[in-house]
Design goal:
The complex is a heterodimer of chains A (294) and B (430). Chain A has 294 residues and is mainly α. Helix content of chain A is 74%, strand content 1%. Chain A has a single domain, classed as MetI-like (MetI-like fold, Orthogonal Bundle). Chain B is an alpha/beta fold and 430 residues long. Chain B folds into 2 domains: 162 residues, Periplasmic binding protein-like II (D-Maltodextrin-Binding Protein, domain 2, 3-Layer(aba) Sandwich), CATH 3.40.190.10; 199 residues, 3-Layer(aba) Sandwich (D-Maltodextrin-Binding Protein, domain 2), CATH 3.40.190. The chains are: A mainly alpha (294), B alpha/beta (430).
Chain lengths: 294, 430
């Protein structure tokens, strides 16, 4: 009897040590997530009890022209950053990983610096750099004979400016992932291929890329999840303007929940974003064959 | 001896208990005041000790929070029911959202403020009224003016004296005519370098419709964004930019002040708080400016407006509303503290006594070449028209700003833009 009691009490201890995490998770993550879904089923404007309306908020979203604009802007941001940032990150990783490059740690640090720089600082700097009259970028363009561009106030251009900032900001993070992937590829594979007469491009195409596939899948999925949630830089630089031209889904969510104090509709926007990210992630995983058996 | 020692300890303990009880019995009221403004912090820190000395039963806990998140935090506190301050300052464009829903978090001050109405500029109380009741005590009135570069006027052969320029720019029609002479390509590269005015564009558009006694809502809360006056005014704003080409859109952020410093604009139009920022961030141009009332519209001849503003509220969570009212009365409704508030913020309090205070109206301002700027805004404060607020003010402002921009870009006509904005807001109002 004594032995059984001792065993049972020994089994309990891991759960006791895990309990603080689960308590904090329940209070600060699980409960807000569940309550937000509950709120999305209500018309809850201002203070006081809301009115239960079922999925009316979601139906309203489908007809909301500003939500459609924000979805279009967000998709444009996701695709734009994906197409340029991933190849750039891979390129930087290959450079940093090259045996010819000295000061690898320094370069890694420099490329990673934008990732750890606060969004507020980035927004202030780029507001000045991209200013139409006084920005450095337009000054350089004028010096080389190009016309200045209204990077932040031209409705046709502003989202591309936000994409540019996004590429610069997160390329370093993806570079680190690719670097880890590159360093995991066995040198013997390269040596064997060189013996067979493979050139640099063939080494990259037939050894590096296939070996990096799991890393590429991971980077693309993580990138898309993060990119869909873009908020701080467009919010601080343009406020989502001009005329919603740089309004993303998260900016629209914030506007409804906090500027208009419409918590029900804001929660519905949040869940719509969750569904979009989940759907796209599942499609990606299927395309990349992650669900296929070995 | 042992008995005496025990007796002494007992007496000491009893007196300690009695002292503690008596201090508990003499109730000390603590009121939490929250704000975001660094300039107001100066006068709060000056006035709070004076208030506490006159009211020893009240302690003020003043907290200044970062401006960007201030109203979000206040909203979160109201929703959570925890951490609600007693006396929060609220910004005018954020007030509407707190007036939505089945409950308001603020006390109705209508009956209490009646006593003070004769002291206040009446129209200002309307700007803080919802459903016919007053919910906040304003700290400012923000009369709006047009400041102009005296040197550019002189260069073009015009008088630069404010009394003459006031006549020269008496109407918006005259503003366009003069503007066409003052807007120029300075360096001969074929591009305009100096505009008559920068347009934000909501800021100036709002002042123009207010001059014509219009707004976004009428007294009954009906949306009037697409009224004829507003449509015609938007057409005028679009023409300033695209037809007369005497205006350009505001450079954003710090670039605006650089452009003003570099002489890229002849006039700046805005409320006195906006002009205050121009003063602060363009010291190079000190002494080169004059200030006049806004050009008028033929229908109303009103030469000013108002924009922005902050006020103090009392929340329903406040356990001592009478004490809270004493604090508001001391800081915002007392003639004695006008000078302190003015010297911290250079924002005109909405008190009639402020309009004749020598420290405001008799002081030459070197930034305006010695002109008495305070006298001008005090004169204009009396003319500020009323306008009507709505709990849907944030939605209306958002819709109006976006649609106005589309009209400026030529993607919609002014009429279509404002009809779309108005219909959007009507669709939201319950």
């Amino acid at each position: 009897m004594l032995k059984l009691g001792w065993k049972r009490s020994k089994l309990i201890w891991p759960y006791i040590f895990l309990l603080p995490f689960f308590l904090l998770f329940a209070v600060f993550i699980a409960w807000p997530i569940a309550y937000s879904f509950y709120l999305s089923l209500f018309e809850k404007v201002g203070l006081g009890k809301g009115t239960y309306i079922g999925f009316q908020n979601y139906l309203k979203l489908l007809k909301d022209p500003v939500f459609r604009i924000s979805l279009k802007n967000t998709l444009w941001y996701v695709i734009g950053t994906l197409l340029f940032q991933i190849p750039l990150a891979l390129f930087l990783a290959i450079i940093v990983n090259s045996p010819m490059i000295k000061m690898k740690s320094f370069l890694r640090g420099i490329f990673f610096l934008p990732v750890i720089t606060s969004g507020v600082a980035i927004s202030i700097i780029f507001s000045i750099l991209l200013d139409y009259r006084y920005g450095l970028l337009n000054m350089i363009m004028e010096k080389i004979g190009l016309n200045p561009i209204n990077w932040l106030q031209d409705m046709k251009v502003v989202m591309n400016s936000i994409i540019m900032i996004g590429i610069w900001r997160y390329a370093g993070q993806n570079m680190v992932y690719f670097l880890a992937g590159l360093q995991g590829i066995s040198e013997e594979l390269y040596e064997a291929a060189k013996v067979d007469g493979a050139n640099k491009w063939q080494l990259f195409r037939h050894i590096t890329l296939p070996s990096l596939t799991p890393t590429i899948v991971f980077v693309i999925i993580m990138h898309m999840i993060g990119a869909f949630q873009v908020f701080d830089v467009p919010f601080l630089i343009t406020g989502g303007g001009p005329a919603n031209a740089s309004t993303t889904i998260n900016i629209y969510l914030y506007r409804n929940a906090f500027t208009f104090f419409n918590m029900g509709y804001g929660s519905a926007i949040a869940y719509a974003l969750v569904c979009i990210i989940l759907t796209i992630s599942i499609i990606q995983l299927k395309i990349f064959g992650v669900f296929r058996g070995e | 001896m042992k008995v005496w020692r025990v007796l002494l300890v007992v007496i000491l303990l009893m007196s300690l208990v009695l002292t503690m009880s008596s201090s508990l019995l003499a109730e000390q009221i603590t009121l939490t005041v929250t704000d975001w403004s660094a300039t107001r912090e100066k006068y709060f820190k000056d006035l709070i000790p004076k208030f506490e000395a006159l009211n020893p039963d009240i302690k003020i806990n003043y907290i200044r929070k970062p401006g960007g998140q201030y109203h979000d935090e206040l909203q979160t506190a109201f929703v959570a029911g925890v951490g609600i301050p007693d006396l929060p300052m609220v910004e005018i464009s954020s007030m509407g959202k707190f007036m939505k829903g089945k409950e308001t978090p603020f006390l109705d001050l209508t009956d209490w403020i009646k006593t003070y109405r004769p002291k206040l500029i009446e129209s200002r109380l309307n700007h803080w009224s919802y459903f016919g009741k007053v919910w906040a005590v304003p700290q400012d009135i923000h009369p709006s003016v047009l400041i102009y570069r005296r040197d550019f006027f002189a260069e073009a052969g015009f008088s630069s004296d404010p009394s003459q320029v006031e006549k020269l720019l008496e109407t918006w029609e005259k503003f366009v005519i003069v503007g066409q002479k003052l807007t120029k390509d300075i360096n001969g590269d074929g591009k305009i370098d100096r505009y008559m005015i920068f347009l934000e564009p909501w800021m100036q558009y709002w002042l123009m419709i207010l001059q014509q006694r219009s707004g976004m809502f009428d007294r009954a809360g009906k949306v009037i964004l697409d009224d004829r006056v507003n449509i015609d005014t938007l057409r005028f704003v679009v023409d300033l930019l695209n037809k007369y080409k005497i205006a350009a859109l505001y450079p954003s952020g710090a670039a605006f002040y650089s452009a003003v410093d570099d002489g890229n604009v002849v006039t700046v139009m805005g409320a006195e708080w906006h002009i205050g920022y121009v003063k602060q961030y363009t010291p190079k141009t000190a002494g080169k400016w004059g200030a006049i009332p806004l050009p008028a519209w033929p229908t109303t001849k009103i030469r000013t407006g108002t924009q922005g503003g902050s006020a103090m509220t009392i929340t329903k969570a406040c356990k001592h509303p009478e004490a809270a009212k004493r604090f508001i009365e001391f800081v915002f409704l007392s003639k004695d503290n006008i000078k302190t508030r003015w010297s911290s913020t250079y924002q005109l309090p909405p008190l009639r006594d402020a309009l004749t205070l020598p420290d405001i109206v008799n002081v030459p301002d070197p930034y305006f070449g010695g002109q008495k700027f305070g006298a001008l805004i005090a004169k204009l404060a009396r003319q500020i028209p009323t306008y009507y607020m709505s709990p849907y003010w944030p939605e209306a402002l958002d819709a109006a700003q976006n649609e106005i921009r589309l009209a400026i870009e030529g993607q919609k006509t002014p009429e279509q833009a404002l009809k779309d904005a108005a219909n959007k807001v009507r669709g939201v109002i319950k």
